[in-house]
Design brief:
The complex is a heteropentamer of chains A (506), B (361), C (244), D (420) and E (151).
Chain C: E1 3-7, H1 13-25, E2 30-37, E3 51-57, E4 67-74, E5 87-92, E6 108-111, E7 132-135, E8 148-154, H2 161-164, E9 175-181, E10 193-198, H3 204-216, E11 227-232, E12 242-243
Parallel strand pairs in C: 1-2, 2-3, 3-4, 4-5, 5-6, 6-7, 7-8, 8-9
Antiparallel strand pairs in C: 9-11, 10-11
Chain D: E1 2-6, H1 10-22, E2 27-32, H2 44-48, H3 62-68, E3 70-74, E4 78-82, E5 87-90, E6 95-97, E7 100-103, E8 107-109, E9 123-124, H4 128-137, E10 143-147, H5 151-162, E11 166-170, H6 183-194, E12 199-201, E13 206-213, E14 216-221, E15 226-229, E16 231-234, E17 238-240, E18 256-257, E19 269-271, E20 276-279, E21 286-287, H7 292-306, E22 319-324, E23 327-333, E24 342-347, E25 354-360, E26 363-370, H8 376-385, H9 393-398, H10 411-415
Parallel strand pairs in D: 1-2, 1-7, 2-3, 7-19, 9-16, 10-11, 10-16, 11-12, 18-20
Antiparallel strand pairs in D: 4-5, 5-6, 8-17, 13-14, 14-15, 20-21, 22-23, 23-26, 24-25, 25-26
Helix pairs in contact in D: 1-7
Chain E: E1 2-6, H1 16-24, H2 31-35, E2 48-52, E3 55-59, H3 68-72, E4 78-80, E5 87-89, H4 99-103, E6 110-114, E7 117-121, H5 133-137, E8 143-147
Antiparallel strand pairs in E: 1-8, 2-3, 4-5, 6-7
Classes of the chains: A alpha/beta (506), B alpha+beta (361), C alpha/beta (244), D alpha/beta (420), E alpha+beta (151).
Chain lengths: 506, 361, 244, 420, 151
């Protein structure tokens, strides 16, 4: 192919008076942007390779580097933006589907940012979370329709055992990210952090590396259409089994782990050839209808002797409320709704950016629908896809979620700068890679600390905020949309979200 | 805006008196207790519930109904005719009282379900909810056997005088003085709230209202008044009548032990506590409250689990008193045998003795 | 070894399977199930040394996630036989319907009669395991779709290759081998596979697959025509589909 | 406990340090015939070249002896050993008794059998006194013949050259430094030496010498060539100094014999350093390995054992590093020549850099590195531990040694404490 | 005693340890100045990152119990401090014979210059700092400064 017509996306600025030619940038770049002929020689850059991951910038000891978006002065045009032009040129050069990683980067409204939280003033007091107990413990799993008690003397006993409930010490879990899409070190950091936090991590669909089984008590294992790693032990060691029907970043299409990341270890875990593309197609080939989902749920329950709650994860699509209702009635204990801003290791950009609906409206619609049908208590709802901060967690819970998954946020805690090149396997931050030179960049011990810090910080913020609302137990927040007010939302949006506009009273 | 369309937070005074022997006493006593706490109210609401007040009609469902206009009353009449035999219909006796104005139409019905209804209570409850929801400006103050709710806009002592409480006798009375912080109240918005024989007087405000409300709505309750007190009343009905849970357990749903306490419980107790929080977490009443729940045969007083509202209890011979302030108790019982201060989440449940014939239902 | 006789007539699958699980825990190793009709998940997740003989028509997902047990069916099986099966052996004296051995990771499935569509899809190999499916009769479309390992043998007894196998053989295949008796028309094969022709006598793997099959049904096989041996063209069927 | 240490060089110092580590109270006395604080013997050439001042030459400062509570007797020469009475007699007639005795008498220059040598003035290159004498007598443009092209001879050649003397080196062997390196490396060294104007005569030796004038000597070489020189430096090697041992019951061969605890055949009498012979690790033969490292390690082992703390010396191994005419030379292990089953690989990674590695049975057994000392200790460790390096030979030859070159499977075994 | 340990598994080959070590041992601790000193001789880092991709590992002095470098030192420049356990090189005494380089089994001693003279340089655990500069600079906590019991 002759010279590419796509200009470099980033501009590398090196302040030569600050550059000590130490070569840190050269050695840290996973994309071979910087080069040096000899130690302490002149450093040169190939900007075409730069993905803007900022690894070199962060590591440069003298702050001599700056990576800036390369602002191409194509003529301003509302339709034909630089991005559109470059995509066309790229496709004209390759004839391929444009891949993207991480979440949707289109400028859709973020409903979380248009919802304001409430606080107490005078008539009911705020609670000081520093002194008073603030409870965020959350249980996942279906609930008994009612509690029956038996009196014996002055005390009472439970008459029927409850369905299995999974205790979370904080309503924040780590979302499904497979070994293969992310490195083993990252898997380990997530697993260990979940264990320390008393919450759960999700293996994703890549199977369970043998070294991580020690964290199984805090794991959700996924059964996806590719069925990687699914054996009896896999199901038995897990706390929860999740059937992956869809993913918010790429509704309607399946998983695709490019061969670049299929090292022997990943291949061994998935039981497929090394170097191959691991494909888990959109459909489970044994599920082409809702009763087939029930059949798979039942199969998993049979195999594990009804000891594991079954979660079903679906992408938030237009009809998600009805779909969720079907899933609840198919016997799932947990429904995970993954919004369109959820991350992924690789997805066609057109799918990532154009399909699905945001998690805020999806969770609101699902919660409302299940309540209307009187089956909200038969399932727990987990919201995921675009949860960025504690406020998002709070708002998701107000809208009706029991708990949330964080994926991208967890990776950001480990260093991810959202460059969106996970599918290349060259992640400079050592996260979305299997290259041993790169993957060692995530020291699990350090990673655990960062993840634990993040979730603890969010949890503190959650306590702080619900305290401000005068609430000391998170269950009082769940579905409590009176604590939300819409700002700048139209009537239809307010109706879908089930919230009142700011300024309207209780 | 009309109360019932918007949520109005409020502060309050509450009191409850029960005679364990089921001996009836005058409503004047509860009015006297409430009078002491005059300054906790602002004249925008007062009310009382009396149990055992209609001994001669104790097998019939007594309905106290208010209506803004006569069409409301006739619509109620129509509705009752569908399912009940009206034994008696009369205006609720009142007396002209300074400080009580804007009096709505107030009617009293004694009803008998027409056919041998398997669940007469359910019918009565449904009828109550239907009137409140569908007949504009009309509201059921109470609808149950051998009890009644008297409430309106005004100070409690004025409301007591207005409804001639001194002419009633019951074995259990609860009272309420209201301090809403928003627009002037509506008669229906005053406390106690009731559904069937369960009445509620409430001080404080529930921050979990939105969660409680949505849960109750998904269980078939319609919130007419948009107040947290209404939600608590319905939650009581839901847990006590529909889920058959004893009041001790209901107290644990409204004000459960903290998780750290649950974690330290013996296994059996813990299982129950966990089950209650998991199942009825949405009915946890979060935020400051003290409530007195009255029901046929007893009452329960309860504080939120952080004890953010005041509540005092006292006992003297066969009498048990609960109130926002000790002075209220001393006003009617100067030297009680014991006075105590219930802890957060620690319910005071007092039933009339079992062999005493006073139960309405 | 004591054999438990179970009359499955009218039993719901949950009670039937719970009973077997419980009895297995108490040491019973061999079960004969009579009057089976539609009970799902029989044998699901059961581990080694358990033998189940089934008379009748077992329901969907027979032997799903089987973990070493042996199951023999005298009759036809429905959809999802050996779904995500890990180890063990399934012998079916009749036919089976769609998605036999979906995501199969190990063990063997021998079916004397016909099978439906999407058989052996997502089969895998590794971790010292390599699953085998042998079918005596014909198979439907999408045989060995997304196959990543293991071996499928289709004998198509008394049928021409055009009759014995459906369309889209080995779509997305990136590992493993499919043997089909006779020369399969090229238009039945997906882009992602290549085919060569081997004689039964010359192919040790094929013989190894067939030996237990013949033994299971107490038959001997002689083949005059060559087998189509179908393998993936490369490890990355969709490697060049994307623009980076 | 009374400890007596004879000699205060590396062996003696480390023996005393070890004794004090294990015995806080014992009385330690050290006799040294040197007048000053002990100095590093190899430093004498640096002194002669003016690269180091005398006061900087001490191996340990006075503070060291004070801190350890050592009674240091300088200028005291032990002359007689009375094993029966556990005492040592000095040249001045003083007697020192002991419970434990350490002998660190070092070595002394070998005097070759050259006709007329005893009759003519000649220098050795062994002590500070030797070089002080040289400095006094040698003037620029003097012709100096150095007998011996080994380490000492060449160090002498270097320093005399720096004094602007005209130096000739004569050695019996076919190449220089034949005791520590093979011919290939030696030629490189020779080139560097000759470039500085030193004349080198190999396969040759001094047959006779006689005085022909006040600062003039006539030297007859083995090949018949006659040389006229002003000075003669005898540097054919060092032998164990057994003066004190002769005539006692201490058994010795070429050197004093000791067990693995550095104890002689007489209980309570220990020895270490250049005067003892011990098993050489690679060859397994008894050898005198006169290097500083060896002396220090042996001294320490002896000291521990003297203080009752058992420690064994596992064997000696040659390892040298020296600079000659701006050329650094490192040799270690069996670096001298080809032998049975040996594989010799040579590389010249950069101009002026020479690396010669000797392998036996897939293990490194010797190395000669010229101007290539960077991380050479890793190679020494590989030799010392006899690590199997067959699969990484090429890497060892091509690059600066790295720990990461060592096969990962053996990592733990050899460098356990290095990584977390 | 406390030593610097490198967990090879998590060394990311950035060499920041070297860079900050160098600066810490420069007359001008500012990085940019340290790398372009007035005398033109860039100081030598006392920690060195080995690289054998994908692996890398920072190596610095172990401060051995019986340091071979000190044992082999002909001038007494290298000594192990009896109180701190730190093995130090006295640049005033070093004669640059490189004996220490030839015996250090991990190759932790380097050729350097002090006051224009070639001398051996090595890790001194950054005396005067609470945490050695290399450990502080390590972005992945591959380097740790800890006491594992031995002296």
């Amino acid at each position: 192919m002759p010279r590419s017509l796509v200009p470099p996306a980033f501009f590398v600025e090196r302040v030569t008076t600050r550059c000590i030619k130490c070569g840190v940038c050269v050695r840290q770049c996973g994309f071979s942007v910087h080069a040096q002929a000899e130690p302490y020689g002149e450093v040169v850059s190939t900007e075409e390779n730069c993905v803007g991951c900022q690894r070199c910038v962060v590591f440069c000891p003298t702050r001599a580097l700056r990576i800036m978006e390369n602002v191409h002065s194509v003529r301003q045009h509302p339709n034909w933006t630089a991005g559109v032009i470059h995509d066309i040129q790229k496709q004209a050069e390759t004839g391929g589907i444009i891949l993207g990683s991480m979440g949707c980067d289109k400028d859709y409204p973020i409903y979380f940012d248009r919802l304001a939280l409430n606080a107490s003033q005078v008539t009911n007091p705020a609670i000081d979370p520093l002194r008073e107990p603030m409870e965020v413990r959350t249980y996942l799993g279906s609930k008994a329709p009612r509690v029956e008690v038996k009196r014996s003397g002055v005390t009472f006993r439970l008459q029927k055992p409850m369905p299995i409930g999974i205790k979370l010490e904080t309503p924040i879990m780590f979302a499904a990210m497979s070994f293969g899409s992310i490195s083993k070190n990252v898997c380990e950091a997530l697993a260990k952090a979940a264990t320390e936090l008393g919450t759960l991590f999700n293996t994703g669909e890549g199977g369970y590396h043998a070294d991580l089984r020690k964290y199984a008590a805090n794991s959700i294992v996924q059964v996806a259409s590719g069925r990687f790693g699914v054996d009896k032990e896999y199901l038995e060691v897990a706390r929860v089994i999740e059937i992956k029907m869809g993913q918010g970043a790429k509704p309607g299409i399946g998983g695709h782990l490019p061969g670049e990341k299929m090292t022997w270890e990943v291949a061994r875990t998935r039981m497929i050839p090394k170097g191959t593309d691991a494909i888990s197609p959109a459909p489970h080939h044994d599920i082409y209808s809702i009763e087939d989902l029930k059949q798979l749920i039942d199969t998993l329950k049979e195999v594990t002797d009804y000891k594991k709650p079954i979660s079903v994860k679906v992408a938030a699509v237009h009809n998600v409320a009805a779909i969720a209702s079907g899933i609840a009635r198919a016997g799932a204990d947990i429904i995970t709704i993954d919004g369109m801003k959820g991350g992924t290791g690789a997805a066609p950009k057109v799918v990532r950016n154009e399909i699905g609906i945001p998690i805020e409206v999806a969770i609101a619609a699902v919660d409302q629908r299940l309540r209307e049908e009187g089956i909200r208590d038969e399932v727990s709802l987990v919201a995921s896809g675009g949860i960025r901060c504690s406020a998002d967690v709070l708002k998701a819970i107000c809208l009706g979620a029991d708990a949330v998954y964080i994926g991208t946020a967890a990776l950001v805690a480990l260093g991810c700068h959202l460059c969106g090149k996970c599918y290349t396997g060259k992640c400079s931050w050592g996260i979305a890679t299997q290259d041993e030179y790169l993957s060692r960049r995530v020291n699990p011990e350090l990673g655990v600390k960062r993840l634990v810090n993040l979730v603890n910080a969010w949890t503190l913020e959650i306590k702080e905020v619900i305290g401000a609302m005068g609430i000391n137990a998170i269950e009082s927040l769940r579905g409590n949309r009176l604590h939300l007010r819409g700002i700048g939302l139209n009537e239809v949006e307010l109706k879908v979200l089930g919230v009142k506009p700011a300024g309207e009273s209780m | 805006m009309l109360e019932g369309w918007v949520r109005i937070p409020s502060g309050c005074a509450i009191a409850g008196i029960i005679n364990q022997n089921g001996q009836a006493f005058s409503g004047e006593m509860i009015a006297r207790a409430m009078t002491v706490m005059h300054d906790r109210s602002n004249g925008l609401g007062g009310g009382f519930a009396g149990y055992g007040i209609y001994p001669e009609m104790k097998e019939a469902y007594a309905f106290h109904v208010l209506a803004q206009d006569k069409t409301g009353i006739s619509q109620v009449d129509e509705l009752f005719k569908e399912n009940f035999t009206v034994i008696l219909k009369e205006p609720l006796p009142t007396r002209r009282t300074a400080g009580v104005a804007g009096t709505p139409f107030l009617m009293r019905y004694f009803l008998q379900p027409q056919k041998e209804n398997a669940d007469a209570d359910q019918l009565v409850a449904a009828t109550t909810l239907q009137i409140n929801k569908h007949i504009g400006g009309t509201f059921v103050l109470s609808g149950a056997k051998n009890m009644g709710v008297f409430k309106g806009v005004g100070y409690p002592e004025d409301i007591a005088a207005f409804f001639r409480l001194d002419e009633y006798k019951g074995y259990l009375w609860t009272g309420h003085g209201r301090f809403p912080t928003n627009t002037p109240g509506w008669w229906g918005g005053a406390h106690p709230f009731s559904l069937l024989d369960v009445t509620l007087v409430h001080n404080g405000e529930i921050s979990s209202y939105g969660a409680n409300r949505r849960y109750l709505e998904s269980q078939g309750y319609h919130m007419t008044l948009q107040t947290d007190s209404e939600a608590i009343a319905y939650a009581c009905d839901f847990l006590h009548r529909r889920h058959q849970l004893p009041w001790e357990i209901i107290a644990k749903v409204f004000a459960p032990p903290h998780w750290w306490e649950i974690d330290r419980m013996p296994a059996e107790e813990r299982e129950l506590a966990v089950a209650l929080r998991r199942t009825y977490g949405s009915l946890l009443m979060n935020g400051p409250f003290s409530i007195i729940v009255g029901f046929a045969g007893g009452m329960m007083a309860l504080n939120d689990r952080l004890k953010l509202r005041s509540l005092v209890a006292a006992q003297n011979e066969e009498w048990v008193f609960v109130a926002s302030e000790e002075a209220a108790i001393r006003a009617v019982c100067p030297e009680p045998e014991s006075v105590w201060y219930p802890k957060g989440g620690e319910a005071v449940i007092q039933l009339v003795k079992e062999n005493v014939e006073c139960h309405a239902a | 070894m004591q054999t438990q006789l179970i009359d499955a007539c009218g039993l719901h699958y949950q009670s039937l399977n719970a009973y077997i699980r419980k009895a297995a825990g108490n040491g019973f190793q061999h079960y004969t199930l009579r009057n089976v009709n539609g009970q799902r998940f029989i044998g699901a997740g059961l581990s080694r040394s358990i033998r189940i003989t089934i008379h009748g028509t077992p329901g969907n997902n027979l032997a799903a996630m089987l973990d070493g047990a042996h199951i023999e069916v005298f009759g036809n099986a429905q959809d999802g036989v050996g779904n995500t099966m890990n180890d063990g052996r399934v012998i079916i004296h009749g036919n089976a319907s769609d998605t036999v051995g979906y995501g199969m990771r190990g063990g063997e499935i021998y079916i004397r009669g016909r099978v439906g569509c999407r058989v052996g899809i997502h089969m895998k190999a590794g971790l010292e395991k390599s699953p085998v499916i042998v079918v005596g009769g014909s198979a439907g479309d999408f045989l060995g779709e997304y196959m990543a390992g293991g071996c499928i043998v289709l004998l198509g007894e008394n049928l021409t290759p055009a009759e014995s196998v459906g369309k889209y053989i080995g779509t997305g295949m990136h590992g493993g081998t499919i043997y089909i008796r006779g020369e399969v028309p090229r238009d039945r094969l997906s882009q992602e596979v290549k085919v060569e022709y081997v004689r039964f006598e010359e192919d040790v793997k094929l013989q190894e697959c067939l030996e237990p099959f013949a033994k299971a049904f107490a038959e001997t096989f002689r083949f005059t025509e060559a087998f189509s041996k179908i393998t993936p063209v490369g490890h990355r069927p969709f490697g060049s589909l994307y623009a980076h | 406990m009374k400890y007596l240490v004879i000699g205060c060089s590396s062996a003696g110092i480390h023996a005393m340090e070890a004794i004090r580590q294990k015995d806080a109270t014992g009385e330690i006395t050290c006799l040294t015939k040197e007048q000053d604080l002990p100095y590093g013997r190899p430093l004498i050439s640096y002194w002669l070249e003016g690269k180091i001042r005398e006061e900087k030459m001490s191996l340990r400062p006075q503070e060291f002896f004070d801190r350890l509570g050592i009674r240091l007797c300088t200028g005291v020469e032990a002359v007689r050993l009375d094993l029966a009475n556990r005492s040592v007699l000095t040249a001045t007639g003083q007697s020192f008794t002991y419970d434990r005795l350490f002998l660190g008498c070092g070595g002394k220059p070998i005097v070759p059998p050259i006709e007329g040598l005893k009759a003519v003035p000649h220098f050795f290159f062994h002590t500070l006194a030797d070089v002080k004498k040289i400095k006094l007598l040698v003037t620029p443009e003097d012709k100096v013949l150095i007998i011996g092209g080994g380490l000492i001879g060449l160090k002498a050649a270097e320093s005399l050259t720096s004094l602007n003397a005209r130096v000739t080196v004569v050695d019996l062997a076919p190449h220089l430094l034949s005791s520590i390196m093979g011919a290939g490396a030696a030629y490189m060294v020779q080139e560097a030496i000759c470039a500085q104007g030193v004349e080198v005569k190999l396969n040759n030796s001094v047959a006779a010498v006689r005085m022909i004038g006040p600062r003039e000597l006539a030297v007859t070489l083995k090949d018949g060539v006659q040389l006229m020189v002003n000075h003669l430096v005898v540097a054919v090697g060092v032998a164990p100094n057994l003066d004190l041992v002769q005539g006692t019951a201490l058994s010795h061969r070429r050197g004093l014999l000791v067990d693995q605890h550095m104890q002689t055949n007489i209980s309570g009498v220990y020895a270490g350093g250049d005067m003892v012979e011990f098993r050489e690790m690679l060859s397994g033969q008894q050898k005198v390995v006169g290097i500083v490292l060896n002396a220090a390690m042996q001294g320490r082992v002896a000291g521990y054992n003297m203080a009752g703390f058992p420690l064994a010396f596992d064997g000696s191994m040659v390892c040298n590093s020296l600079n000659l005419f701006a050329t650094n030379i490192v040799t270690m292990g069996e670096s001298t020549a080809a032998g049975e089953n040996k594989e010799i690989l040579v590389s010249r990674p950069a101009p002026g850099v020479y690396r010669e590695l000797v392998f036996r049975d897939g293990r490194l057994c010797g190395a000669t590195l010229i101007n290539d000392a960077e991380r050479a200790g890793i190679l020494r460790h590989l030799i010392y531990k006899q690590v199997e390096v067959d699969e990484v030979k090429e890497g060892l030859l091509a690059k600066t040694p790295q720990l990461l070159e060592i096969p990962f499977a053996r990592w733990d075994e050899y460098y356990r404490d290095l990584t977390a | 005693m406390k030593r610097v340990y490198c967990n090879e598994k998590y060394c990311v080959n950035c060499h920041l340890c070297e860079i900050y070590c160098l600066a810490a041992h420069s007359p001008a601790p500012d990085l940019i100045k340290a790398f372009s000193p007035s005398d033109g001789i860039r100081p030598v880092a006392r920690i060195q990152v080995e690289e054998s991709r994908p692996r890398s590992m920072a190596v610095s002095c172990r401060h051995c119990l019986h340091p071979l470098c000190a044992d082999s030192c002909i001038s007494g420049a290298l000594t192990k401090d009896p109180n701190t356990g730190i093995v130090l090189s006295d640049p005033e005494k070093c004669v640059a014979c490189w004996s220490c380089l030839s015996v250090c089994s991990i190759g932790a001693i380097r050729k350097g210059f002090v006051a224009g003279r070639p001398v051996s340089v090595k890790c001194d655990l950054c005396q005067g700092r609470e945490i050695p500069a290399c450990v502080e600079a390590c972005p992945n906590q591959a380097l740790t400064y800890e006491d594992r019991g031995e002296n």
